[in-house]
Amino acid sequence: MTAENLSADQTPTDLGVLVGYDGSELAARALEYGAAEAGRRSIALTVVSAYTVPVMVYPNIASMPEENEAEAAQRAVEELLGEAAGLLRGHSGKVSYRADQGDAAGVLRDLSAHAGTVVVGARGRGGFMGRILGSVSTALPAHSHCPTIVVSGRRSDADEGAVVVAVDGSDAGRLAMFTAAEAASSRAARLEIVSVLPSGKEWLYWYPELELNTEVTSRRRAELEAALEAEVAAVAEQFPDLKVSAAVPIGNPTEVLAELTETAQLTVLGTRGRGAVRSALLGSISRGVLHQAQGPVMVVPS
């Protein structure tokens, strides 16, 4: 392993695959996943741990600790990075380590401007990613400058299966599709493009005046399948060696996509879809899939 230690005041230029590490079990899985990603792409791997320094008030000099809070926090995070280096002992590529002061989501968001991909665990220990899912692992994908992969601990065979990408005809979905194609190509995996057709029950909830029947559903499904054929052709043109398929499952989009994470090598989503409110940084479907995912999920920023 080649290790390059970077201080927090250095300006990053090309961090490659950026992994957030806090010493938790899922952070270790994210580290393993990030190292494999960097190896596949032959790019650098950067491991970062973030720390905050609480403002303390002491009644007198005698009650002050021998080591101030800032020094203690930095020493603790450097120990974490040493632990990470031990886990990466077998990694043959370039590895850099950073100890940055600040909120975990904010640190990763800023560094993501200089990275190709960010990888985090779905939950962490508390100091780095320990707040419930919906904190760093949901806030970061919404604000990141590059794709974010959230690694769940529910599956151990995440290097098998197809790369699945959800599209809905939006620009965000199309960007996610080509990002997924690149990911599938680097893994020598099959790409499956999915467009979920909401079931009639969902449409009737919002539009009770509609008359939905099997004929209407079949016609709409055929329209989506025809649209996906054009998308498959577009991907095949740019990635001629990639095996690409398409599917139009019917059901609740969040539930359908969450179920696909059980067998997919990687599930790729956009931050927002066609029907998203502009002010919503992370769409309800993407957020819902992250909460229910059984395997790694990549969220591609718009």
UniProtKB/TrEMBL annotation:
Transmembrane segments: none
Domain UspA: 17-151, 163-301
Gene3D superfamilies found in the cross-reference section: HUPs (3.40.50.620)
Family annotation (InterPro entries): Rossmann-like_a/b/a_fold, Universal_stress_UspA, UspA
PANTHER family recorded: STRESS RESPONSE PROTEIN NHAX, UNIVERSAL STRESS PROTEIN UP12
Similarity-based family: Belongs to the universal stress protein A family.
Name recorded for this polypeptide: Universal stress protein
